[in-house]
Specification:
This protein has 190 residues and is α/β, with parallel strands linked by helices. Helices cover 41% and strands 18% of the residues.
Length: 190
């Protein structure tokens, strides 16, 4: 049986992605990135995962994994998040440019550091999946994997994923790419 590691945020999209893979016959495990450095100041509003304490987000992701009856791991990605996302953000602001931290986080942390750290922890998987709205395919003519828009133009997230490499696209799956957000909500409600 092929196995899938699903990046669980605790939200509807990643939960449905895990459920769809289970329905397709994959052995599924969930993982959440830990990216918050406790030495950093907490934002006045209490923050959220990428800009504040993440205990609630991790607990929610764990509850999703428990509901789906899949194993769950919390993967420490703090050093990579600080180096590749926060430092890049600061540097770009200093240079007078508008940074896009999600692009860097996806390519260097979520789709690189997270799977690598999971494997180093002994988590075994064949594919890595998330709840992003995107699609991939292999183009025979160019002999390359392609990142394609999701069928729901309102939810398409390929802009945030454009830096993914051929190596990454070889083992990444986006189960929601062929669904609309409304269809995903209906699956979640069931």
């Amino acid at each position: 049986m092929k196995t899938a590691l699903v990046g669980l945020s605790g939200g509807v999209d990643s939960a449905v992605a895990a459920l769809l893979l289970k329905r397709q016959g994959y052995g599924v495990a969930g993982a959440t990135m830990s990216i918050w450095d406790e030495s950093m100041p907490t934002p006045p509003d209490g923050g959220r995962a990428c800009v504040g304490p993440e205990e609630k987000d991790i607990a929610t992701a764990k509850a999703v994994a428990d509901f789906l009856q899949i194993p769950f791991s919390v993967i420490d990605c703090v050093p990579q998040f600080k180096a590749f996302v926060l430092e890049n953000f600061r540097q770009e602001y200093k240079e007078g440019r508008t940074p896009n931290p999600c692009v860097w986080c996806n390519s260097l942390v979520k789709f690189t550091a997270l799977p690598q750290a999971a494997k180093a922890m002994g988590v075994s998987f064949d594919i890595f999946a998330t709840g992003h709205y995107a699609q991939t395919n292999f183009d025979q003519q160019s002999n390359r994997r392609q990142l394609k828009k999701a069928i729901d133009p309102q939810k398409d997230q390929t802009y945030f994923l454009y830096r993914l490499t051929q190596e990454q696209l070889a083992y990444i799956r986006f189960p929601l790419g062929g669904y609309t957000k409304e269809q995903v909500r209906q699956i979640a409600a069931q």
